[in-house]
Every structure is written in structure tokens, then in C-alpha cells.
Amino acid sequence: MPRPKPVVHGLYAWTPAYGYHYIHPANRRTFEYLEPVGKLFEKIDEDEQWLLLRYDEQQFKVRPELFKELYGKPAFSFGDVVEEIAPEPGRPPHRGLISDVFWDEATDRARFQMVERKRKVKRVFEAEELRFA
Known about the structure:
InterPro entries: DUF6960. The protein is mainly beta. It contains 1 helix and 11 strands; from the N terminus they run βαββββββββββ. 5% of the residues lie in helices and 41% in strands. A hairpin with a 4-residue loop joins strand 2 (40-46) and strand 3.
């Protein structure tokens, strides 16, 4: 049985100014709506023309030229159940699923946003502010 491919994380710094030929026609609207700059993607497959990238529950076919592989692995990934470690006094900790992973190139670190009871928590967390629930 073949071994599964390891997940490769990376950035895809595309904006509409680059032109739409980098994005598969079936994915153009949703990818533009996602605003991919600064978001961490998982590369799940590739062929000679396209990369298949995953962001949360969505998949996108894009040209490989703009993909920048990152060698560090984020502490959490899409769908991980996490809990806030130190909530504000008098408030229960946020607990939910990781829905967004942002990459700060200046600090070379991931930041995370979660969905709690079907609502996105407005706050973006550092890895050390969360733990697996």
C-alpha cells in the first residue's frame, strides 16, 4: 500500500492584478472572494498544469508559479477542535473548530481563527493561546 503524501503548507499570494490565468476557471469567483494573500494553504495534489490547494473545506486549482512552500508546520490545522487557554476573567473559554489559518511572514508564524457554535469568533489567536480540546 503506498504511503500517503505528506501535507505541504504554503502561501498563494495572488490578487486580481496578477490576472485570472493563474486560477482555474471553475474556481475564480470563490478564490477571489477568499482573498488568499496571507492565508495558509495545504497543497493536496498536483499535476503538470495545476496545484490542488485546500483552505478549510474548499479546494482550488491554481497554477504552481505563485505557490510558496513553507517548511514549518502550523500548530493547528483546519477542523482541529481547540480551546482558548486563558479567557478574559468571567468569560468561559472559546472552544471550536479552526476555520482560518493566517501566516505572518514578518514573524514566520501562523495565527488562527475558529468557528464556535456555527459562528466565526472575531478574535485571531496565536498558537500559544490555544490547546487541543
